[in-house]
């Protein structure tokens, strides 16, 4: 399950829907894996305004990942018109000044889309229920007494 997904899931119990403590679910005993993906700059740009930034920071903290800035970056930070040194030789004059993904965009891509939780648990901060993650899939089905 991608780190991005953790920004969109919450505890399935009805009693937790209205509780701020139920989001984000806290990863525990997480085994992480990097699954390389082609970078999609427009996707990252479009998803950025929909992120709950504080929740993302919290999850990164729990997982011991890179510390994110305290406020969400602006879409302008995601592109740079300065050619990277390594690209200069290859870039022809026509696209040398095209906007290209900034390091920040690459970092967000790696964090949100390539970093995946392979196994572990997601714990609700309100009710304490633990959702198991196995083979990269979280099981959000509740036992009948909790529904
Ligand atoms: Zn809950």
Automatic annotation (TrEMBL):
One of its GO terms (molecular function) is protein heterodimerization activity. InterPro entries: Trm112 (IPR039127), Trm112-like (IPR005651). Belongs to the TRM112 family. It comes from the Eukaryota. This is Trm112p-domain-containing protein. The lineage of its organism: Eukaryota, Fungi, Dikarya, Ascomycota, Pezizomycotina. GO terms for biological process: rRNA (guanine-N7)-methylation; tRNA methylation.
């Amino acid at each position: 399950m991608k780190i991005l997904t953790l920004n969109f899931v919450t505890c399935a119990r009805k009693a937790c829907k209205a509780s701020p403590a139920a989001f984000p679910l806290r990863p525990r005993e997480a085994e992480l894996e990097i699954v390389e993906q082609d970078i999609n700059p427009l996707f990252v740009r479009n998803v950025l305004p929909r992120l709950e930034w504080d929740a993302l920071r919290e999850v990164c903290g729990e997982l011991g990942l890179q510390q994110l800035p305290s406020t969400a970056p602006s879409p302008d930070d995601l592109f740079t018109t300065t050619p990277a040194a390594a690209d200069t030789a290859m870039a022809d004059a026509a696209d040398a000044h095209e906007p290209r993904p900034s390091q920040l965009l690459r970092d967000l891509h790696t964090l949100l889309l390539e970093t995946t939780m392979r196994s572990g648990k997601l714990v609700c901060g309100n009710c304490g229920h633990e959702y198991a993650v196995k083979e990269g899939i979280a099981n959000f089905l509740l036992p009948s007494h909790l529904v």
